Queue: 2 jobs
Job 1
Amino acid sequence: MTLAQYWHCFVGIQVREWLRFWQQRTRFFSALVRPLLWLVVFAAGFRAVLGVSIIPPYDTYITYETYIAPGLCGMIILFNSMQGALSMVYDRELGSMRVLLMSPLPRPFLLVTKLLAMGMVSMAQVYLFLLIARLLDVEPPDWGYLAVLPALLLTSLMLGALGLLIATWIKQLENFAGVMNFVIFPMFFLSSALYPLWRMKEASPWLYWICQFNPFTHAVEAIRFALYLQWNPQAFGITVLVAVVLAVLATAGFRPQRTRILSSGGKAG
Amino acid sequence: MKSLLKQISLAAMVGLSTPALASLAYVSNEKDDTLSVIDMETLEVVETIDVGQRPRGILLSKDYTRLYICASDDDTVQVLDLATRKIVDTLPSGEDPEQFALHPNNRHLYIANEDDAIVTVVDVNTKDVLAQIDVGIEPEGMAVSPDGKWAVNTSETTSMLHWINTETFEIEKNIVVGQRPRHVEFSRDSKIAWASAEIGGTVHVIDVDSLEEIRKLEFRVKGVNQDRVQPVGIELTSDGRYAFVALGPSNHVAVVDAKTYEVLDYLLVGSRVWQLDLSQDESLLLTTNGVSGDVSVIDVADLKVTKSIKVGRYPWGVVIAP
C-alpha cells in the first residue's frame, strides 16, 4: 500500500462524510439547539452562582455561561460521536459501511479515518456554537479558537471509539434512548462540564471521585484549557491514553458480521 | 552601517542608563495591617509592607514621593516613603480616620473622622492641625476638587454632601443625596462631582458651579438582587469618556458613559468591590475586592476584566504610582 492510496481513501471518507452532512443539514442545526438551550436558559439561572472562586485556566471571575461553554462543546461531540458510531454498526448505513470495509487498507485505518471524518463534522458544529456563544459574551482569547482544535479532535476520536466499542459489544443497547440514559447522561452530568470539581467535592467526595474517573471530565478540561491558551498535560494525556486504548479495543473488536443485516450477508472486509 | 551600529549602541546605552522602572500599585489590606505592592507590568504582588492597624484610605502625594495611609485603629495617618518603602512619619489625624484627600497644594490633608463627626485638616509639612470642621454624623468620603476650591465630605448617617470652602474651612452648602453616601470624585476640570450612595444604590452627579444635582444614576445588574447593588468607589477617565462605579457586594463594576450618563456595561469582578484606581496611562483599572481578597484588573480599552490578583485579607484602597 502506498501513502497515496491511504491519502486517497482518507479524502474519500472525509468527502463522503461532508456529503452526508450536507444532506442532513437540518440535523446539523437542530443538534445545535441543545447546547444553545443549555447556554441561554440553564446557565442564565445560575449566572451568579459561580462567581466565588478563580480556577485555572481562568485568570479572573467568570460567569456561569463562560464556565459551561467548553462542557457544551464536549456535549456536542458526545452526542454526535455516540449517534455516529452507533449508526456505523446498526444503521441503514450498513451497505456503505460494508463497501468501505472491503477496501484492502487495514481496518483500523478505515475505522479511525471514519471516526475522524465524523469528528470533523462535530467540529464544524462546535465552532458554530462557539461563534454564537461569543455573541452571548463567552469570549475566549482569539488564538484559543485555534488552540482548541487538537483537543476537540482528540475528544471526538475518544468518544467515537467509545461509541464504536459500545455498539460492538453491547447488543442490548441498540436503541439510542438506552445509550442516552446509560452512557451520555451519566458521562455528561458526572463530569466537570456543569460544575467545577471543587464544587462536586463539596457536595460529595463520591461524586468527585466518579467525576475524576470519567474520561469525559478530562476531555472537557483539555478543551477548556486549550480554549484559554493553557496547557493541561494531565487532562490532555489522559484523553490521549483513553482515546488510544478505546480505539484499539474498538477496532480489534469491530465485527460487522455480528449485526443482524450482515449475519446473512457473509463476512465483510 | 557605521551609523546604524552607532545608533544601536546608543540605544543600548540609553536602555541601560534608564532601567524600565515599572509602575507599582499599592493596596491597603484592612484585616492584615499590610500593603500589597503590585508590579503593573507583570501584574503580580512583588512585596508586602507592614503598616499600622486597619489601613483603609491611601493616597499619593502630588509629587509621587510619599504615600499617606489611614491607619484607622491607630488613630493616625502614616507616611510611607516610596523610594525606600518604609514608614517615615506619622501625622495627627483625629480619631478613626477612614478616607482623606490631599489639596493640590500638596500640603493640606482633609481627613474624615468617622466617630467624631468632624473633618480634620492637617498641614503635612508642619503637622499642624489647621482646622476641625463639624460635619454630619459618620463622615466617610472625602474629596478635594482639582482646582483646589472645594473640599467635599460625605456623612453616612446624615446622607449629605458637605461642601467646604478650602480658604475659610467653612461649610458653604449641604446637598442631600441617597442613603449612606460613601465616595466623591471630581472631573479633571472640577466642573462635575460624582457621589455614590451605598444603601440608596445611586450615584449623584453634581454641577459644581451651581451646586445642584443634575443627574441621578441607578444600576441594575443582571442576576443580582437589587439590595446588593451598593455603589462605593468611583473613578473617572481624564478624557471625560468613562466613569467606573464599584458596586460593592453585587461584585460588578459599572461602566458609565460620562457624557450621556448611560450605563454601558457591568463587569464581573471579585466579591464586594470597594475602591478603584486607574493606571497613569489609564489603560488599566484596578479594583479592590474586599471579601474575596483580591484585586481585579480591567482593560479600559476593551472594557474587559483580564485578571484577578490575590492580595491580603480585605483589600480596601488602591493607588497606582508612576
Job 2
Amino acid sequence: MQIDRRRFLALSGAFLATPALAADRADLCRRALHGWYRLVLELVRHTATYSPPVAARAFAYVGIIAHESHVGLVPGPLTLAGQVQGLAPLPAPAPGLDPAAVLDAALGRAMGDFFGNTGPSGQGAMQAMARKLAAEIDRDLTPEVAAASRAHGLAIAQHVWDWSLSDGGAVVENLGFPFDYTFGEDPKDWVPTSDIRIQQAPLLPNWGKNRTFALPAPDLCTLPSHPEFSTEPGSAFHAAAMEVYEVSKALTEEQKTIARFWTDDPMLSPTPPGHWVSIVLQIAERDRMPAERAAAALAVLGVAIADGFIGCWAEKYRWNLVRPVTYIKRYIDPNWETLLITPPFPEYPSGHSTQSGAAEVALTAFFGDNFAFEDATHADDGLAVRRFSSFREAAEEAAISRLYGGIHYRFGNEQGLVQGRCIGAFAAQLKTFA
Amino acid sequence: MRSAPRLAALLLPLALLALALPALAEPVVPVFTDETATAGLSTVFEGEWEYMVGGGVATFDCSGDGFPEILLSGGAAPSALYLNRSARGGPLVFEKTGAITLDAVLGAYPLDIDSDGLMDLVVLRQGPNRLLRGLGDCRFEDATEVWGFDGGTAWSTAFAAIWERGQDWPTLAIGNYVDRLAEDFPWGSCTDNWLHRPDGRRFAAPIPLTPSFCALSMLFTDWNRSGQWALRVSNDREYYKGGQEQMWHLEPGQPPRLYSEEEGWKRLRIWGMGIAAADVNMDGYQDYFLTSMADNKLQFLKDPATGQPDYADLAFKSGVTAHRPYTGGDLRPSTAWHPQFADVNNDGRLDLFVAKGNVARMPDFAERDPNNLLLGTAEGPFVEAGDRAGVASMGIARGAQVVDLNLDGKLDIVVVNRWTKAEVWRQTGESGGNWVQVRLRQDGANRDAIGSVVEIRRGDKVERHEIVSGGGHVSGSVGWLHFGLGDAAEARLRVIWPDGSAGDWMVIPAGSFQILGRDRPAEAWAPG
C-alpha cells in the first residue's frame, strides 16, 4: 500500500477521533504509539533546544520507554536492561495490566519529561493528546485496571527518566551553544559560518563525551584522518573542496531535490534523526505493525541514531575541520554560496551521514535487506514522496545530499557512513524479541 | 551574489554618515522616566494561548489638539482609548474613555479610510475584525458592514494599508495566524491572509493571499523605488509547513503575486514577529529589521542594479542581533516583537527600539528579557543603551510605539505587556540635538498621504522615509513624523507624494512643527 505523509497523519488523527473498538486492545496500543509519536515529531521541530544530537537522544529514550512498556505484558519483547549501558532492570508488571494504558501513560509521561521546555502550543497539544487517548483507552477498563496500568506506565517512564539524567546530555543551555569556546588557530580549524550571533560558538562541543547506549565506548568507531589540509591546487583536500564547488555550479534539479529532501533543518523539520523515525512510523503504518514490533524498531533506531551522534560528535571535535563554505570563500571563490545553510559545527564527519549509516544498519537488521519503502516525511512542507529499495539506498542518498547542499566534502559523507555503520552494528545486536 | 566589495559598500554609508554629520563621538543616551504609575494607562493585555501573540498599541490624534491619543489592546479584556491630557513638555497624562471597549482585540492601526479628516481605526481581533469610523471628538462608530468589510473569524495578527494607484479608497492587507480551533494540534494550520481591495467607496470581497504562513507583521514598501509598492509579510515558522518570508507584487488591477526565486527572492525562515523599515545606510533603499527569537535580521538590498529583492543580513555587523538580554542576568536567548526605527536622541541618526518578552514561560528563552534601545553611532554599529536610558523593562512586551506624546520634540515610548499594565516612558533628559516634526496633508483621498516618501538631507546624503500604515507588531501610528537633526539648525527635506510627484525641497527650521500640504508652502503649527 502506498501511503503519503498526509494520509499517514490523517490515519493517526483518525485513531484519536474515532471510537475505540472495544475488543481490539492491540489497535489501541497502535493508536497510542502513533498518536504520541506524531506529536513527538512536532515537539522536536518546535522545541528550540532540539538540535539533531539532542533530538536523537530523546528519540532513544522515548523509544526505549515505548519498548519497555510492552515487556512482560505481551509475548515477545525482551527488556533492554543489561543490554544498553547503565539501564537497570525496570519495574515488572503486575498481572492483568492493560498494555494500551501502560503505553499511553508511559509515553505521555515521557513527553512531559523530555519536552517540558516546549512552548505553550506544545504544552497544550500534550495535554490534549493525553486527554483524548486516556478517554479512549480507559473507557472499557475498570478503574482499578486503568489506574494500575497507568501507574506501571509511569513507573517505566520514571525509571528511564532517572537513568537518562546521568548521561551527560540532560542539560542543554543556550540552545546548545557554549558561552565560552576556545577556537583552534590552524587554517584547517573550524570557524563560524553564519552571521547568527548565537552561533559564533559551535554546537554542543562536549556531546561526544556523553554516555552511549549500545556502543560500548565512543572511541570504538573512530575514523582515520581526513585528507591532509592543504590550499595547494591538486592536493587531495583542495580537490575535495573543488568538487563541492564544481558540483554546486552544476546541480541538476534532482540533486537540488535530494539536498532539500534530506536537509532536515532543526526548527523547520523533525531533524535528521526525526526523519528516520518518521520513516519507521510510515512503515509501521503501511504494514499495520503491532505496536510492540513498531516500538522495538523505534527503540533500536533511537539507540542507533543517538549513539551515532555521540560518536560523530566525538570525531567532529577531534578533527575540528573547516567547512567547505569557509575554505571555498577563502581560497577559491569569495562569492560562493551554498544551496543549504551550513550547520554551526565542524565538518568531519557528516552528522547526517553518520546517523543515517547507523539507522541503515539497525533497520536492515530489524526489517531485512532490500526492504523497500516510501518516504513522505516532508509532504506537508511541499516535498514530494521519495521511494527507496533499501535502507542502504536511503542512507547513501542522505549522505550524498550534503555534497549537493554544499555543506560537506565527499570524504566527510563517506566516512560518516562508515562510522555510522560501525556504530549501528551495536544497536543491531540488541535483542528486543525472544 | 554577495561580494565582499558590495558588502563593504552596504556598510560604508553607516561609517560615512559619521563624517557627514556634526561630530558626536558617542551617541547621547536619552534619559527616560517611567511614568507608568502616574500616566493613567491601566489596560492590561490579558488572555492565554489565543493571546500569546498580539498586544498592540495605536497612537493618533482624534481630539484635534495635535497630541496623540493611545488605544491599548486588551486581549481577552476590553481594550481602551485614552485621551492625551499632557501639557507640552510636561508629565504624561491620559484620561481613559469608554469610546472603544471591544474585547478580543490583538492590535489596531489608525487610518483615515474614508478620507474625511477624522481618523478611523482598523481593529484586529481574535474573531471578527472591525472598522471603526471616526466621528470627531474621539467618538467612533462601527462601520464594518457599511463599508462592506468582511471581518472574518480568524486570529488576525498583522496589518498593512496602501492606496493603490487610481483608487480613492485604501487596500487593506490583514495577516492571520493559526486556526484558533486547532489548539490541540496547531502546527500547519495557518489560515489565509486576506487582501481587501476597494469596490468604489467600500471594500470588495477579500482575496486570499494563498499561501499564507502565519503572518505576524505586514508592510507595504517600495523596495526597489519603482513606484509600485509591494507587500512584505513576516511569518512565524513555529506554525507553518513549507513556509518562508514573503513578498507580494501588488499591481493595479492584477491579482497579487508572490515574488519568486526566479526573481531573486531568497528563502528565509524565521520566527517572524515584526518588521521595521528605514533607510539605515542612506543608499536610498529601505532596509528591513525583522524580529525573531534568538536572532534578528537587518536586511540590506545587496545590489539595486540587479533589480532583484536579494538581501544581505547585516544584523551582526551592525550590532543589532539583540539575541540575548544585555542586562538583568538572564543569559537565555531573547524573544523580540515590535521593532521601530526612530531618532530617539535627536542626533540625526536612526536608532532602533525593540520590544522584548517571552512567549509565555518558555524555559529555553529568557524570562527576564529587557527591551532594547539600540543607538546609531558615528562608527556605524549600533550600541545598546536600553538600561542606561531607563527603558530596560523586564515586562513581557509585545507591541509598542516610539512617539512624541507630549510634543516636546523628544520621543517617548509606550509598550504593551502581556499580563501586566502597559508601560509608558517620558523622555526627560536633555535632547541630544535638534528636531523637526511634520505632518503630510493632501486634499481628496488619502489625506495623510500614506505611501508618500519623505526625503531628508544628511550632509551629502539623502535619507528616505516611507510613510506607511502597517508593520511593527500589531502597532501603528498616524501623526507627527519626527526627524532628529543633530546640531543642524534646519532640516532640508521634500515629499514625494503617493502618485510619485516630487515636491520641492524645503528648509524647515529646527524645533518646529510643520504641516506639509501638497503644492502649498509649509504651514507652521504649535501645540496649544
